[in-house]
Amino acid sequence: MSAPVVTRFAPSPTGYLHIGGARTALFNWLYARGRGGKFLLRIEDTDRARSTPEATAAILKGLDWLGLDHDGEVVSQAARADRHAEVARALLENGEAYKCFSTQEEIEAFREAARAEGRSTLFQSPWRDADPATHPDAPYAIRLKTPMEGETLIRDVVQGDVRIGNDQLDDMILLRSDRTPVYMLAVVVDDHDMGVTHVIRGDDHLNNAARQIGIYRAMGWDLPVYAHIPLIHGPDGKKLSKRHGAVGLEEYQVMGYPASGMRNYLARLGWSHGDDEVFTDAEAKEWFDLDGIGRSPARLDFKKLENVSGQHIAMAEDAALLHEIEAFLDAAGKNPLTSPQKDALMRAMYCLKDRAKTLPELIEKAHFALTETPIEPDEKAAKALDPVSRGILSELTPQLQNASWTRDDLEALTASFAEARDTKFGKLAGPLRAALAGRTATPSVFDMMLVLGRDETLARLKHAGQPAG
Predict the structure, then answer these.
(1) Residue pair 433/439 in contact by the 8 Å Cβ criterion
(2) What positions does the entry give for ATP binding (predicted)?
(3) pLDDT (0 to 100) of residue 344
(4) Considering only CA atoms, which of 422, 373, 417, 377 is closest in space to residue 395?
(5) How far apart are CA 173 and CA 98, in angstroms?
(6) Inter-CA distances, 28 with 10, 23, 38, 67, 331, Å
């Protein structure tokens, strides 16, 4: 029986959670969750000067919004420095590493001479095979003994077999002369100790894999399965950056995309399952596999994101959507909903969900349910409430007083009212929208009446039917 799948997401807390990082986390989460495995989270905070608690908090908040739950405690890489150093010393003891006493000045002099002579600038330490009896009493780094001949093979599920000549790899420092471990060593030790079976990460780490494999081999540890995924590019095919718009995950929440739509869209960025564009989490977990990831960079497409987002809003359970709207308002720094507003929104949800592509669009369409009487129409809606229209509304209001409050009866009553005045209902619709919502783009007039109820509808119509003061 094969070992259970263990994946990990290992961001550096030096800034916001990039949308590319969010997709990497999602791929790891889907792969583990779809196989009953574990998805672990490690914060790679070894760069103490640039790592901040605020960035760590932002990463955790972003993953929480996206709905990517992790197993176990969050691992801090910096807190494991003693364990990393212990492995470096073990490699030194078993002859897979050596003490290097070369100073920074000597290394730079070597590189300058190599450049001048047109040779490789990969540093070749004179201490690699030095007799320990010749070692000075001075600070030293511990370097890995990289094989000098042959090649390192990276078997990658996405990129295929990648071969790197060992003459292209230097003897990597494992432990600096100040006794601090390097990032490359820390990653391998942490992945091994955490039992990671699949390393799914951006293809900007592909070259790192060759050097990391050297540590695995020197320690006699099993290699994980590697899957290096292409980066996300902007719509113009260039590396994603601020000029393309939002690149931080939190910006997408503030723009009002639902988390489920974001998960769906990110899953389709660089991975495909036939022609399926819109799918549920359950389907994504069942379908996701590494062989569906392409080798070419994916391009961010906001129109597609909006389309997927709109379909997820339409598919969502009303209570879940209300929860998402509340989280959106909080993230965007807007006023929270009152209890009456939440109740009204839940009643209105059935006529709001199908036509909104983002949560702000849905909230705008819900304006009629969220606002209070008296309604203040916006500039466009005010034009629909000219004296003639106000007169018509004041005539219609008493007829609605005794109507049976069902859609069929309301439609029949307004149709006969329009016919008696030798006009079409379309002529009534504009003033009714303005009266009930104070807007021109709204759900159907009858949906608004049903959501608002008889008393509120009549109160708004009475107010709108009064002559402008």
Answers:
(1) yes
(2) 242
(3) 97
(4) 417
(5) 10
(6) 10, 9, 9, 13, 26
Question: How confident is the model over 18-30, as pLDDT tens digits?
Answer: 999 999 999 999 9
Q: Measure Cα distances from 208 to 9, 44, 215, 301 in Å.
A: 16, 15, 11, 30
Within 182-301, where are the H helices? 183-193, 206-219, 249-254, 259-267, 281-287
pLDDT at 92: 98
Both structure tokens of 362: 């849905």
What is the C-alpha to C-alpha distance for residues 270 and 375, in angstroms, rounded to an integer?
48
Query: What DSSP element (H or E) covers 143?
Result: strand 141-144
Order of strands across the sheet that contains 141-144 = 97-100, 141-144, 173-175
Inter-CA distances, 190 with 24, 42, 74, Å: 18, 9, 12
Burial of 60 (0-12, 13-18, 19+ CB in 10 A): middle
User: Binding site for ATP: what residues are annotated?
Assistant: 242
The rounded mean pLDDT for the chain is 95
d(CA 53, CA 40): 19
Strand partners for 38: 6
Amino acid of residue 269:
L
- Residue 469's pLDDT band, with cuts at 50, 70 and 90, is low
Listed in sequence order, the residues at least 6 apart from 129 whose beta carbon sits closer than 8 Å to its beta carbon are 98
Both tokens assigned to 63:
């993953």
Rounded distance, CA 190 to CA 216, Å?
12
Question: What domains are there in the chain, each with its CATH number?
Answer: 6-72+232-305 (3.40.50.620), 79-229 (3.40.50.620), 316-357 (no CATH), 379-465 (1.10.10.350)
Task: State the burial class of residue 243 (Cβ atoms within 10 Å of its Cβ: 0-12, 13-18, 19+).
Answer: exposed
Q: 13 is written with which tokens?
A: 């807390």
Q: Is the peptide bond before 374 cis (omega within 30 degrees of 0)?
A: yes
Given a cut of 80, is residue 385 above it in pLDDT? yes
Angstrom distance (rounded) from CA 146 to CA 90: 16
Written as six digits, the tokens of 58 are 């932002």
Q: Which residues are annotated as a binding site?
A: 242
pLDDT average, residue stretch 172-186: 97
Instruction: For residue 18, give the DSSP letter.
Output: B
